[in-house]
Prior knowledge:
69% of the residues lie in helices and 0% in strands. The chain is mostly helical.
Amino acid sequence: MALFLKEDEHRSRIQTKVAADLKERLKDRQLSPQQEHEPAILDNQHTTRGAGILIAVLALVLLIVVLVVLKP
Length: 72
């Protein structure tokens, strides 16, 4: 806490002004409501479930082939 109190002792006027401006901007950002996504952005979404399953099956087949080849 003492460091926080001594923080203002060695500041110039410009540093004090900049610090106050940054604190004000931070307050504005914290108080503003979260912006919601535009519905148009969510319209172009697609699912990759089929591709994911295909990749998993191919990875499993590759693993089995590697195990069979390396097994003496």
